[in-house]
């Protein structure tokens, strides 16, 4: 439920509980989530600095990541990982690369490592190994 954008929560009661139990709102592209500050700050140095520092985001308890995340789907996977250390479903290679980039942007190396090990490494074969090496040079 936590990784479900507000617009997709069908029950008003469930949405009310989700907002009540959360203390920070995060927007990414066209979706908004209510999250627990303790959970996300413990996983990401970016969230830690933005929400626990003396920035406006900390005062407003609101963070807009639209400039960092290429899609709300990628950020939804980031939230799933922050709350459970895994993904509910294996993402596509394209989405996994977006999550990898987002993991670097929000200073969350454990997320980037998880994506690389669980999604990208199993996809390496003799045909695509050179493409993967080119990708790794970028990082």
State the end-to-end distance: 32 Å
Task: Report the mean per-residue pLDDT as an integer.
Answer: 86
Radius of gyration: 16 Å
Shape: globular
Strand order of the largest sheet: 2-1-3
What amount of the residues lies in strands?
Answer: 5-15%
N-to-C order of helices and strands: HEEHHHEHHHH
Tell me how many strands there are: 3
Helix content: 55-70%
Main sheet: strands, sense, barrel? 3 strands, mixed
Instruction: Provide the low-confidence segments as ranges.
Output: none
Number of helices: 8
Which structural class do the helices and strands define?
A: mainly alpha
Gist of the model:
By secondary structure, the chain is mainly α. It has helices spanning 12-20, 37-43, 45-52, 56-60, 72-84, 93-105, 109-120, 129-138, and strands at 24-28, 31-35, 62-64.
Q: Overview of this structure, please?
A:
The protein has 139 residues and is mainly alpha-helical. It has eight helices and three strands, in the order αββαααβαααα. It has a three-stranded mixed β-sheet with strand order 2-1-3. β1 and β2 form a beta hairpin. α2 (37-43) crosses α3 (45-52), α5 crosses α6 and α6 (93-105) runs antiparallel to α7. The longest helix has 13 residues, at 72-84. The protein is globular, with a radius of gyration of 16 Å. It starts with 11 loop residues before the first helix and ends with a helix. The relative contact order is 0.12. The mean pLDDT is 86.
């Amino acid at each position: 439920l936590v990784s479900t954008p507000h617009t997709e929560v069908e029950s008003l009661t469930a949405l009310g509980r989700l907002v009540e139990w959360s203390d920070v709102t995060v927007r990414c592209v066209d979706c908004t989530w209510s999250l627990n500050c303790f959970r996300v700050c413990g996983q990401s140095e970016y969230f830690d600095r933005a929400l626990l520092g003396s920035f406006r985001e900390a005062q407003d308890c609101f963070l807009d990541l639209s400039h960092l995340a290429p899609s709300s789907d990628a950020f939804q996977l980031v939230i799933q990982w922050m709350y459970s250390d895994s993904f509910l479903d294996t993402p596509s290679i394209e989405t996994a690369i977006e999550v990898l980039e987002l993991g670097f942007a929000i200073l969350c190396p454990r997320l980037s490592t998880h994506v690389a090990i669980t999604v990208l490494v199993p996809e390496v074969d003799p045909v695509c190994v050179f493409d993967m090496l080119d990708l790794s040079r970028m990082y």
